[in-house]
Write a structure and sequence with these properties.
The protein is an alpha+beta fold.
Length: 193
């Protein structure tokens, strides 16, 4: 229904952005890769996917068309919903994921929290030919210097993890890498949780 939404960033966290488009604020669920790509920008264009449920309409936004296309491929696989696809694309870049699928690398896919062997195999079987037909190369984006534990913790809680477990994982990671970015903290915490 919506191909993209452009506007001013009213609020942004690693899990969502509120984009003000002519006085209407759109709550858009985003991935960590999109959060990183947005960086300090105040104006943005997010390519969107609208999920229509019986009790809600949810917008998912992506910085690149390639990321949105990969998201839509992921949700076409039986057993993979929008939140799982967003979690996968928060843990792996489009390029990493497409390479893993093309090379039948189940270990890389299973490194994503909540993805088991059967789901990883199903992703590979269902998407291998589609990924090979489509070029899923992605522009390299710079990281954001927001290294606040609170932002990472907020994102993990929004993604459904318990606050205490997420906080312990982040503390452990901050001891190892005190100047890690929010994206790195969340990505590494996803592997620990």
């Amino acid at each position: 229904m919506y191909a993209y939404i452009s506007g001013r960033i009213a609020e942004i966290t690693p899990a969502y952005a509120i984009v003000d488009n002519h006085g209407v604020g759109y709550f858009i669920n985003i991935t960590l890769n999109t959060f990183t790509a947005i960086g300090e920008q105040t104006e943005v264009r997010l390519y969107t996917h609208l999920q229509v449920l019986e009790d809600a309409h949810n917008l998912f936004g992506f910085y690149t068309v390639k990321e949105r296309d990969m998201f839509e491929l992921l949700i076409s696989v039986s057993g993979v919903g929008c939140n799982t696809a967003r979690l996968i694309l928060s843990s792996l870049t489009v390029n990493e994921l497409s390479t893993a699928i093309a090379n039948e690398d189940t270990r890389t896919i299973q490194a994503v929290k909540g993805i088991g062997g059967k789901t990883a195999q199903r992703l590979i079987v269902d998407l291998k030919d589609k990924v090979k037909k489509t070029e899923f190369t992605e522009e390299v984006v710079g990281s954001v210097d927001n290294t606040l534990k609170n932002e990472a913790l907020s994102a993990l809680v929004i993604l459904g993890f318990s606050k205490n477990a997420a906080s312990k994982a982040l503390d452990k990671l901050l001891k190892q890498s005190p100047d890690a970015s929010v994206e790195v903290l969340i990505r590494e915490a996803l592997k620990l949780l």
